[in-house]
Amino acid sequence: MHPAYLFSRVLLPLACGLFAAPSFAQDSCRIAFDMGSSGIRAGASNSQTVVRTGFDYLAPLKAGGGLDGAIDPTIATLQDLPKQAGFAENCVRVGGGFSAWRLALQRDRGKLASDLARIEAKSSVAVVVIPQKVEGAYGYYGARRLLAENLKSSHVLDIGGGSMQIAGESTTFGQALGQKVWHQKLCQAIRHTANHPCSLQPLTGREIGTARALLARELHGIDEALPEQITMTAVSRPVTQGVVPAVSHLLGKPMDQKNLSGRHLTVAIRLISRLTLEETAARLSLSQDYASYLLSDMLLVEGLMTATRTSSLQIAEIDLTNLPGLLADDVAFNWADHYGCYLERLRKLGLDAYASDPVTCPAAKRPAKLQR
Q1: pLDDT per residue over 111-137, tens digit each?
Q2: Are 127 and 97 in contact (CB under 8 A)?
Q3: Which of 361, 321, 224, 205 is CA-nearest to residue 273?
Q4: Which has the least CB within 10 A, 63, 196, 242, 339?
Q5: Bridge partners, residue 232, by sequence
């Protein structure tokens, strides 16, 4: 069964009308680029190979600038990754721009549209800025494919560098509140510094209260987005390789690595908040770079559990990417046929350009080398 058909059946309800009616197009092949805050991953519809490269897209944006310095390296990467993987040259190529690209769009629509036009002209990759809700749909779709019957919860919790998603089959909540973004907000609110990462430890009880109140405000709207009682499976490394083993070490006892108790997490936060960053790194055998984010990660997970009234979090270690969902997204690939029109709408509509109808665009012809 073609992935576009599966995507349309499973995730159309979740997108709440954002996805157009599926074309069920049987492309000869598709190449997708997952362009996240920490780098680019590439996959193809006719290959199991995934290739990737790291790049910090958030750093220049957090410094108040744009993506100017990232455009040339991005073009080079988009040209190089398919060659590394041995993907066919005539595949249709689409990039999904996620948290960092949404932030760049928010800063300056016209500038980003011009940058994307340049990327497409040099690399033949049509980069589409993907709405947060659609990214959540990709996450649930990818987790369902990887975990199958082992996915027991109604929703998947995915925490990236720039954004986080709680995604289910019919409802989703997403926010520009990933690991690095949340840590930076705490640096500004508690340490009154724009330096990132900063040393948050030790924290007083009052400062922990400030952090929890700030997170509650950031998560405003979660009840409306997720009105039902949900269960969650956390699938990203900040939780599976950071928070869970840290709670076990801090409480001094082996714990079920497939479940995280909210009560245990709150106790662990109280314990770690008393330590310096150096003491945390030594006690948990972590580098200071990883230790810097641990307390903020723990507070983020605790806040998400509190906001969703979830007493226990299920844990699954998987390599979740946006590639399966993006490869199956007919809407994104339809925009590759009308990319000039998409960029014009991006300038006028911003993020809503994705959900507008390519059928109303002027007729466009795909270059011969990229025929379907």
Answers
A1: 999 999 999 999 999 999 999 999 999
A2: yes
A3: 205
A4: 63
A5: 155
User: Is pLDDT at 187 greater than 60 in this prediction?
Assistant: yes
Would you tell me how many other CB atoms lie within 10 Å of the CB of residue 83? 10
Q: For residue 123, what are its two tokens? A: 């690399």
For residues 369 and 148, what is the distance between their CA atoms, to the nearest angstrom? Answer: 37
50-54 vs 155-159, strand pairing mode:
unpaired
Confidence of residue 197 (pLDDT cuts 50, 70, 90): confident
Environment class of 130 (CB within 10 Å of its CB; exposed 0-12, middle 13-18, buried 19+)? buried
Q: How many residues does the chain have?
A: 372
Q: What is the pLDDT of residue 20?
A: 38
Share of the chain above pLDDT 70, in %: 89
Task: Locate 202 and state its tokens.
Answer: 């030790």
* 303 close to 266: Cβ distance less than 8 angstroms: no
Report DSSP letters for 44-106, one per residue: ETT---EEEEE--SHHHHHTT--SHHHHHHHHHHHHHHHHHHT--TTSEEEEEE-HHHHHHHH
Q: Work out whether strand 39-44 and strand 50-54 pair parallel, antiparallel, or are unpaired.
A: antiparallel
pLDDT value at 165 more than 50: yes
The model's pTM: 0.81
Q: Which token pair is 250?
A: 């801090």
Range of lowest pLDDT (196-200, 208-212, 235-239): 196-200
